[in-house]
């Protein structure tokens, strides 16, 4: 039972690594490849890649990728870049995947080690885009602005009641 599970995980991992490679490097595709020639087949595979029950541990995919990368002539980017490039072809994921791809390229792919599986990679790309948008301004150029800001006290009920407010509606608006 354990060996069957391991065989299945390794076979699925090999399939995933090759699909990702063939998507990025079109010259590696076979002319009659059903994955890329049948309508919507590639979209179904991308959908299945994101199902929780289909997740293969990242270290398994990474190990298979590293075993096979030496057999290819052109230097290939890291596995996370290949997968994000593939999944960025899907309209629902394209914005976050591209945003995170730019970040990975700028940081020499250091976040690659903390990924658990493909779904976690996508989750990281989505969460990353929010943290970059909402946390970054507080740490960069706006630090000076935030440090010099004054705290405005809330209006207390006593202060509110002690004021003389104009009557509503104004007398010139009331019809007689």
TrEMBL record:
UniProt-listed InterPro entries? DUF247_pln (IPR004158)
Instruction: Write down what this protein is called.
Output: Uncharacterized protein
Q: What is the lineage of its organism?
A: Eukaryota, Viridiplantae, Streptophyta, Embryophyta, Tracheophyta
């Amino acid at each position: 039972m354990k060996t069957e599970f391991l065989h299945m995980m390794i076979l699925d991992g090999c399939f995933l690594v090759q699909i990702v490679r063939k998507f990025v490097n079109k010259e590696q595709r076979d002319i009659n490849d059903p994955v890329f020639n049948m309508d919507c087949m590639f979209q179904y595979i991308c959908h299945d890649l994101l199902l929780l029950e289909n997740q293969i541990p990242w270290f398994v995919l990474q190990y298979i990728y590293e075993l096979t990368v030496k057999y290819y002539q052109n230097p290939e980017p890291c596995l996370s870049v290949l997968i994000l490039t593939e999944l960025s072809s899907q309209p629902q994921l394209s914005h976050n995947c591209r945003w995170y791809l730019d970040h990975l390229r700028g940081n020499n792919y250091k976040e690659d080690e903390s990924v658990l599986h493909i779904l976690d990679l996508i989750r990281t790309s989505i969460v990353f885009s929010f943290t970059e948008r909402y946390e970054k301004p507080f740490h960069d150029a706006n630090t000076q602005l935030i440090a010099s800001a004054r705290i405005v006290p809330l209006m207390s009920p006593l202060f509110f009641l002690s004021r003389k407010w104009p009557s509503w509606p104004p007398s010139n608006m009331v019809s007689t």
